[in-house]
Structure formats: C-alpha cells, structure tokens
Amino acid sequence: MKRFAIVATASSCGKTTLGRELARRLDVPFVELDALHHGPGWTEATAEELRAKVKPVVAGDGWVIDGGYWGKLGDLVLANADVVVWLDLPVRVWLPRLVRRTVRRVARREVLWNSNRESLRNVFFSRNSLIWYALSNHRRHLREYPERLAPYNVVRLRSPKEVTQWLAKFG
Asked: Which tens digit of pLDDT belongs to each residue from 78-87?
C-alpha cells in the first residue's frame, strides 16, 4: 500500500506533519491540497481547476495527500487511496496547536501557499477565520465522518500516541 489520504476532524491535528513524514518513509510524493487550492491573494481554485491538478496525482502508483476537499473533489482522493487516515484528536490537543501555529504565522509573517500570509484580521476577525471554522465545524465532522468514511479502508487515530505508534509501522 502506497497511496494514503489523510483527513482530520479539525485543523492542526497534524495532517501535514504526518503526511510529509509518511511520504518520506514510503519514498512517494506528498501533496498538500491547500497548496493546490489557494492561489495568490487567497483566490480559490474552481472545482474543475482543482480536479485537473489532482487527477494526475491520484493516477500515480504512490502518494500521500493531505486533505479531502470533498466539496470540490467529491471522492476523487479517497476512492483512489489504499488507506484513509483519519486524525481525530481531541479539542484539547488541536486547539492549542491551532492557536500557537496561527499566532506564529502572523507574528513571523510566514509565507504560505502561493505567497499568501495570514493576518490578524483574516485569522480572528473574518467570516473565513480558520479558528472559528475549526471550532464551529468540529462536532459536525465528528457526526458526519463515520458515515462519510465508511466506504473506505480507514485508520482512525485518536491521540498523538496512536499517531506515533501507527507511523512507526513504516520504519
């Protein structure tokens, strides 16, 4: 098995960190869907544009993809994965991570995908606030993911310890 999709109940569960390390251990490409979705000035790719970028990746023999983007990709990523890894860490783990990461990115003016940066305004005072999105959608994701992910070969990891133990299986 060399095709993994990594999804999470909330941002800052560690999708990207786990994805990069798993891809390194498997010696396969790592693809962060956020990087394909967010263009300069935070413009979003259309569903057609995003699908056109992702289709050649999922056609490959091996990959690790961070994210699902179900609204634009449907089951394109998950249906092509050998394993779907669901990071379902508790709020007490991901919320402090999310706040620390966000504050660090704003303070250091870190460049994200396609020259984008987070700002205090868009992080805390915007309708598109990542923190607000994570908090307001967490319970819905917990309710919907079991049914949504049921058709796939899913590994559900619920603690940092479980993540570490699972990853150790790959050398």
From this structure: 999 999 999 9
